[in-house]
Amino acid sequence: EMTKTIYLAGPIDQGQARDMRTTARTALLERGRALFDPSMGWSVPYGAVPSPSLQRANVAALRQCDGLLVYLDPDIMSVGVTIEIVEAVNFGTPVAIWAKMKPSWALAYLGVPMFDELDDALSELDRWLHV
């Protein structure tokens, strides 16, 4: 069976939850998943004016992945992660969210589950991906 590829979404432009990202990367690799992590793919000079190019590239990469794992930090707002969740849902890509925060009405609307524990989110993705 081919290796499943997971897109790892999390806040980048408004701050990063580095410990959560590292924990998620390690757990995915230990489960034998390939992953795309946009935080590792981009370097932007200080003071650069935002353009749509980075998000377009991220969405193109997301569409090549088998699943989306999102980590959210309730103290860091991220518009990009929201776009990625909606894109994945619209494209039919399985999504699981790892976050220690109150349940979200917006995620319930999208049918996207949220888990307090990373292992639970990964198990849900595995179930959807029939791994």
Structure description:
With 131 residues, the protein is of the alpha/beta class. It has 6 helices and 5 strands. The protein has helices at residues 18-30, 38-41, 53-62, 79-91, 105-110, 118-128; strands spanning 5-9, 34-36, 67-72, 95-99, 114-115. The chain has a 5-stranded parallel β-sheet, with helices on both faces. Helix 3 (53-62) runs parallel beside helix 4 (79-91).
Keywords:
131 residues, alpha/beta, 5-stranded parallel beta sheet, 5 strands
Short structural summary:
The chain has 6 helices and 5 strands, in the order βαβααβαβαβα.
Tell me about the largest β-sheet: 5 strands, parallel
Helix segment count?
A: 6
Radius of gyration: 14 Å
Helix content: 40-55%
Give the distance, in angstroms, between the N- and C-terminal Cα atoms.
Answer: 9 Å
**Average pLDDT, all residues:** 89
**Total strands:** 5
The assigned structural class equals: alpha/beta
The proportion of residues in beta strands is 15-25%
Q: Which regions contain 5 or more consecutive residues with pLDDT less than 50?
A: none
How are the SSEs placed, and which strands pair?
Layout: E1 5-9, H1 18-30, E2 34-36, H2 38-41, H3 53-62, E3 67-72, H4 79-91, E4 95-99, H5 105-110, E5 114-115, H6 118-128
Parallel strand pairs: 1-2, 1-3, 3-4, 4-5
